[in-house]
Amino acid sequence: MEKPKFFYKKTFVNKDNKKDALVINKPLTIQTSNLRHVIWETTTFFFLLMLYIVYRVVLIRIARRLFSSNKLQNKRIQIMNAFDTVFRFLDKHEKGSISRIDLIDLSIRNLQAKRTRSLVTIGGMTIGIAAIVFLVSIGYGLQQLVIARVASLDELKQADISSQLGSKIKINDKALNNFKQIPNVTSVYPVISVVGTVNYHNSVSNMAVYGVQSDYLKNASIQLINGKLFTNNQIARLLPVETRTQEQTAVLGASTKMQQQNGNLSIGAFIQQIQFTLSPVGWVRVHKEPTANSPVIGYTRRTEGVEEGEELWGGQYLSNDSLGKAGKDARGIWYGKWIKAPLLLWKKQLCNPATQGDCEQGDYMVMRDTDGHQIQKEGYFAASNASLTGTSLTKGQVLGASTNALADSSTQKTLGTQTSSGGTIPFIDIASLSAQTKTPKAKIVSLGGNSQKQAVVNVAMLNILGIKQQNAIGQTFNVSFTATGDLLNNASQNIQSRPAVYTIVGVIAGNKTPVFYVPFIDLRSMGLTNYSQARVVVNHKDALAKVREQIASEGFVTQSVADTVAQINSVFSTVTTLLALLGFVALAVASLGMFNTLTVSLLERTREVGLMKAMGMRSEEVKELFLTESLIMTIFGGLSGLLLGFLAGQLLSLILSFFSVIHGLGFVNVSYIPILFILIIIGISLTVGFVTGIYPARRATRISALNALRYE
Predict the structure, then answer these.
(1) How many other CB atoms sit within 10 Å of the CB of residue 100?
(2) Could you tell me if 424 and 430 are in contact, meaning their C-beta atoms sit under 8 angstroms apart?
(3) What percentage of residues in the chain have a pLDDT greater than 70?
(4) Residue 614: CB partners within 8 Å, gap ≥ 6?
(5) Residue 405 Cα distances to 393, 415, 434, 435, 573, angstroms
(6) Among candidates 197, 215, 193, which has minimal Cα distance to 206?
(7) This prediction's pTM
(8) How far apart are CA 162 and CA 164, in angstroms?
């Protein structure tokens, strides 16, 4: 069925000076100015009505009795004058027409004349609105209650990252650095998950162990029952620069002096694979080649975690240690040690951190590609700017020896080997062992010397060990950790730590699955290179979805409590809608009662309408009078319904809280009314008043004054 169209007539004068009417087949549109006028009139009427009620009830009736002294009376008069000023501003009407204040006052008098009928009508409206408010507030209250139990506000800004099952993409230090560079990400916390074999009083149990930083526990909204959380945030053990040469000698079986005797040194010659961290102070120049006079492609600085790269021979440079002149060839030319690695780049440029988001310390700007990501490029920097955290040998590569020299590993049982130039380099036979010895399935290692050996345990673990909560702090137990190959570069290898004594420093909630947390550095010191998962924290919960999208595009899987909250909101949105529909049934009944009241009132006041018209009141003013009475009743009913629905919700919360407190669950509030919902209820009240009053009001305009005066 087509929607009805409204047409208008246009009158014109023809050649015979006779008026003709032509129907123009053009829909009549409502002008924007008219719509604004209607909205303004409705809004000002609502505020005018509220102010007038306050004026009548508070200032005229109550204040007249309370302000008996002359001084207080003068104060009351000043307040009344202020109200009059506001009334004049809101009550702008055409000259010769009745004012809104008079219409409101006359409407209130008419309602008071039929007080019982008016109270019954307002009561019906109150019950209808109260039913909607009560049912919807219960829906919102239960939604808030469930969400509060599931997640806190901080948890809505976090997401857990893990690798896809069977994927070769692992979470390591490089991945952590990439996560850190994503816009709106404030923190990234790696997590190592292993199996712990706990021995307590000759009772052995296996349970999950998580290696985390202290900040991870603080951001995880963990409920601490007793004790404290460990405070260690360390990620990797750093070796001082001054002890670096000795560390390399112990691992590789070669000294710097031996390296200096190598006659085959050259720019870019490979030394070894390393793990390193940059100096925590200052910025580091990144060169295109491993020489001090090669072009600078950017600047870099220390990032979270440990990085991997290659140690190479390069041009000599000035340094406070021996790394700038670490080797000399047969011709007497000195060489320095350089590191080659993929590095995040900045460019040196004056900038303002307050207005430029990519500005760092006022002197360096992030270098980004066309997609907006920070540029990560392979470059070279002086080894004196980094601290060595680990070394690894590739097959057939020992210090300056060439691959050809180690090709026949079966004959390398002595302390020397032939180089391509015929020289001899003394070395300990480690390369041949690493190339031929079969890796064991399970490797026994010791925890690092910087292990904290502290544990935060949950209640379920205490129950298994038979330790009381109040006596748990300070108790010790033996534990060994077993890590699978997923945490190592070699997937076929498992690592097991030697038993160590751990001290319980804190107890957290959780009585289902036994778990405990240890400092991240404890498990990392086992030689693990990959992580089980990571947690990212963003600066605002609205930015979490975009950050998760970007992480997922890199091949990782993300999970967040925000997904659960979204499902809860979806379910309760449906529940709230159904409850609101039930409430609208009561409101519909109340609306019919109001319509009936106004219609009967019109029939009873037919003579009154005729008299008002005979005295000069226009039909439009009569219509406004009936609409005002309708709006007054619905506004009173709406406000009363809001109050009654709120009190009913609070009463239900008190009843439920009585039982929850008995069971130790605390106070339960199942009623919640959002501000937006209050405004919607007020809007519904005004709409109901207008809809139910428009028919009696329009009917009143069609009453003839003469016929109305003769009406019995």
Answers:
(1) 21
(2) no
(3) 75
(4) 705, 709
(5) 15, 13, 15, 14, 73
(6) 197
(7) 0.51
(8) 7
